[in-house]
Write a structure and sequence with these properties.
alpha+beta, 21% strand, binds tryptophan, binds zinc ion
């Protein structure tokens, strides 16, 4: 909290640090009432920086007890203190700074810095949390070797961990004990971690290609020991995969993961001491859904991959965040694709882009993959930095091909090992290794907004030539009224009656070499460009943006018949799915006022009855585009019309395909013992979407769901049945299952979160009152981010019909929650606000939404996080 208006920080103002910190020695005295931290820093003037006579160190919420330079206590006149900084006046060229600070982790509700989660101490330092531990140069380009001593009560905190190798440990005579850790790899402060608690561990080992034995440990509370196998297996798969696909080996003798219940994000890649949200590490068939199993695998991989893309090579400044996050998300996505189904993973990722990132790109918080400025960096851990950033790396992969991309990544890691670098360095390594010119491609890093491609075509029957005209345009975003053309890889094919046609670009030599000459990547670089294909036997149907080759919106005036044709004939799984989505969007559009086009029902009917198709893809296809995505496509959002149209189509499918759905539902039943493998996950996913459609069609389907709930042998089937009954059942049925579920799982915090979430997402009228009531439930707490996300987050972002209630009560609920969290946990407060930031597009509701934002803007002491989001949302 502060008094003055917060300032924006600009990339163009970047200056190298005035000093470097070669060594960092920390000593923690952990206790219930206070924690005392002694820091001894070996500082030296940075030869690359302009000399200055004041050294500014970052520090927040610290009580300074002692300060010395080279063993001599500092006079009052030798330094100044503010709420955010310690200024050393005329410091020597080279010196040791010793600071003793007192902090109160037991009162730290922001979950940033050192804090307590249940009974354990833990840390979260990214992005700028280390300054809440001691005075420091808290920026990623200051890399230091850390030696850390942790002392605490032996009984309450038998496990004491930090980064790197355990050097020494000892019990004291006063019932306390300590451990001493050294991390040989210089690292920025954001990768520092400490954990102290009563923890049990699951252990395993991994032998790297070069023969290093690595001890792997997952630390959890004793009650969760049976939920670690999946994370451990995922970790070993990740370690092997990074060796095989990127040639990257692990570099220390130990790798630790710790699970904590109170955590702002998914997990954190601290060097050799990853800290995980329990929701991203614990998994057991009885308590965890397939989706959550997959998330555990992906997040374990993501954090592990950061050891190279993030830790060995880190970011120069926070504007470069996507350097590590975009690249690491690309790496974990490829890993997941290799572990499961590539096409399904691509569909899931495209869905996130379209329903969440495109909306961010079109809203007031829109920013480039490499932002130019920020007020609070925590607000920039966004889908743009992560998911669009990953798409930018993927486009480089597509343009270079796998071999040159690998050469580029090898060069990047070799050239910059141990350095803090920029997105530019990444692109330059890719260019140098491949010989490709990526100068125009760099605009993907600097220009915000979602490019739109308009495609038109022309068929010359006489010559058999088909011409595509591709025009690109990117709408204005804050601070960027005009955009230059992007370099866009557009993967495509042409379909004829006989299937995929051979592609011959006019003027190019005939392609006789490539295995697949029916698919290719067009490089769109101009505002408008033509591509002519010759020698075609018939007028083709174009299959465009195969595999979602670029994060763009593509417009081509497909007829419904053409979409149904692509759905049944395209060789690209993503394109088949995409055609089904476009068809569904059209059909939902007219269902808002009239009948449901039987074409869609027939198309879905054929998919449902075709046993040769991957059931996971069939399930993805049957899933209607989300209300959020439909809202993003609309000029002005009419929440009710979208909900009504989508529900009408779902009901029509449930009724029209009742027999086929029931048949498939029955055929997919299985009594095999639970495995989270792709075949089983696919079968459950399709079976449960059949169930949801059947329940949408009427009482018989709800009865089926009731039965499935009671018979389920795993949480995936049980939770799907519960959600179906909550959404479609009557009051008695819902109450019966909700009570039963709570009784059975009340002692499993993560399962209780599912119980909150299922209720938060129920579209039935009066749901807001239920959510209000659940906020008073003894199992709910505003202090635990997982609980807030499950109940309030899910309600506001995934239940549009109730959140946007006409009387504004949904907005008021969000205002109330944000008001409280602004004071206790600003990161979570500002994230929750996202649905309100879209107010301008909400026709009838916009004034109420604006008023809600204004109510928040008027709060007496706004955190930087919330301040940035509300002011950017309210200014035009
Ligand atoms: N680097 C983490 C990741 O993506 C992100 C993260 C974890 C984070 N905890 C955080 C970011 C808290 C901001 C605040 O893997
Ligand atoms: Zn990350």
């Amino acid at each position: 909290m502060r008094d003055a208006q917060p300032n924006a920080i600009y990339l163009k103002d970047y200056q190298p640090p005035a000093y470097l910190i070669d060594e960092t020695h920390l000593d923690f005295q952990l206790a219930e009432e206070q924690t005392v931290v002694e820091a001894r820093l070996k500082l030296r003037r940075n030869p690359a920086a302009e000399p200055a006579d004041v050294l500014e160190l970052d520090g927040a919420e610290l009580e300074l007890l002692e300060i010395e330079i080279d063993g001599t206590p500092l006079d009052e006149g030798a330094y100044t203190l503010t709420d955010e900084h310690l200024h050393l006046l005329s410091p020597p060229e080279e010196f040791e700074l010793r600071c003793v600070t007192r902090i109160a982790p037991q009162d730290n509700t922001s979950l940033e810095g050192l804090y307590k989660s249940r009974t354990m101490f833990c840390t979260q330092c990214e992005a700028e949390g280390f300054r809440k531990i001691t005075y420091y140069l808290d920026r990623p380009d200051v890399m230091s070797v850390f030696t850390v001593r942790v002392e605490a009560d032996s009984e309450r905190y038998p496990v004491l961990l930090s980064n790197g190798n355990l050097v020494d440990s000892k019990a004291t005579e006063t019932g306390r004990h300590w451990t001493l850790w050294n991390d040989p790899f210089p690292k920025p402060a954001y990768l520092f971690a400490l954990v102290a608690g009563e923890l049990e561990k699951v252990s395993d080992t991994f032998t790297t290609t070069s023969g290093r034995d690595v001890a792997l440990h997952i630390f959890v509370e004793a009650k969760d020991l049976d939920k670690c196998d999946h994370a451990m297996r995922s970790l070993k798969h990740s370690m092997r995969w990074d060796e095989e696909v990127y040639g990257r080996e692990y570099d220390l003798d130990v790798f630790n993961i710790v699970a904590v219940d109170d955590f702002n994000m998914g997990a954190m890649e601290n060097k050799s001491l990853n800290i995980f949200n329990t929701s991203c590490v614990l998994a057991h068939p009885d308590t965890t859904t397939d989706q959550a199993f997959q998330r555990v695998e992906a997040v374990v991989a993501h954090e592990y991959f950061h050891n190279w893309s993030g830790n060995r090579v880190t970011c120069r400044d926070w504007f470069q965040l996507s350097l590590k996050e975009g690249f690491t998300v690309f790496r974990d996505a490829e890993f997941s694709a290799d572990m499961g189904s590539r096409a399904v993973k691509r569909v899931e990722d495209a869905t996130v882009l379209r329903s969440i990132q495109f909306a961010e790109d079109a809203g007031p918080m829109s920013h480039p993959v490499r932002p130019d400025s920020y007020i609070e960096i925590s607000n920039f851990y966004t889908v743009t930095i992560y998911e669009k950033g990953a798409e930018v790396v993927r486009m480089i992969h597509t343009l270079l091909g796998p071999a040159d991309f690998r050469r580029g990544s090898d060069l990047y890691f070799e050239r910059h090992d141990g350095q803090a670098v920029t997105c530019e360095d990444f692109v330059a390594a890719m260019e140098d290794a491949s010989g490709r010119d990526l100068s125009q491609f760099r605009r993907w890093y600097s220009q915000a907004g979602t490019p739109e491609l308009a495609v038109s075509d022309n068929w010359d029957e006489a010559t058999g030539t088909y011409t595509l005209t591709v025009s690109q345009h990117c709408p204005p975003t804050p601070g960027q009224p005009e955009k230059e053309p992007f370099h866009i890889p557009l993967k495509m094919g042409l379909l004829g009656d006989a299937g995929s046609l051979r592609l011959q670009i006019e003027g190019e030599a005939a392609d006789t070499e490539s295995e697949d000459n029916t698919s290719r990547v067009l490089e769109v670089t101009e505002a408008s460009q033509q591509f002519a294909f010759s020698g075609l036997p018939e007028r083709p149907v174009p299959s465009l943006l195969r595999a979602f080759s670029a994060p763009v919106k593509l417009h081509y005036p497909y007829t419904r018949e053409q979409l149904a044709f692509i759905m049944s004939r395209d060789s690209d799984g993503f394109s088949r799915w995409d055609a089904s989505q476009q068809l569904a969007i059209q059909v939902i559009g007219d269902a808002q006022s009239g009948a449901v086009d039987p074409l869609l029902i027939d198309a879905f009917g054929s998919l449902l009855q075709d046993d040769s198709l991957d059931p996971a893809m069939v399930a993805e296809t049957l899933r209607m585009p989300s209300e959020n995505y439909l809202a993003d496509l609309a000029e002005t959002v009419d929440v009710e019309a979208i909900h009504r149209g989508r529900q009408a189509v779902r009901t029509a499918i449930g009724k029209g395909l009742n027999e086929a759905l029931l048949q498939r539902y029955r055929a997919l039943a299985s009594d095999a013992s639970y495995q989270p493998d792709s075949a089983q996950v696919a079968a459950r996913s399709l079976r449960n979407s059949c169930l949801a459609y059947l329940a949408q069609a009427g009482e018989a389907g709800v009865e089926l769901a009731m039965a499935q709930y009671h018979e389920a042998a795993n949480m995936t089937d049980r939770q799907a049945a519960l959600a179906t009954v909550v959404n479609c059942g009557n009051e008695a049925q819902r109450t019966e299952l909700l009570e039963d579920f709570y009784q059975a799982w009340q002692h499993e915090s993560l399962v209780v979160n599912q119980w909150f979430q299922v209720q938060a997402m129920c579209p039935q009228p009066g749901n807001l009152e239920r959510v209000r009531a659940l906020m008073e439930h003894p199992a709910f707490s505003l202090r635990n981010p997982n609980k807030v996300r499950a109940l309030v987050g899910a309600f506001c972002s995934a239940n549009p019909i109730n959140f946007h209630r006409a009387d504004g009560a949904g907005y008021q609920l969000l205002v109330d929650v944000v008001t409280e969290l602004n004071a206790t946990n600003p990161q979570i407060a500002s994230r929750l606000l996202t649905p309100l930031t879209r107010w301008r597009r909400y026709g009838e509701r916009r004034e109420q939404m604006r008023a809600a934002l204004e109510a928040i803007a008027a709060l007496p002491s706004l955190s930087k996080d919330v301040y940035e989001v509300v002011t950017k949302s309210l200014t035009d």
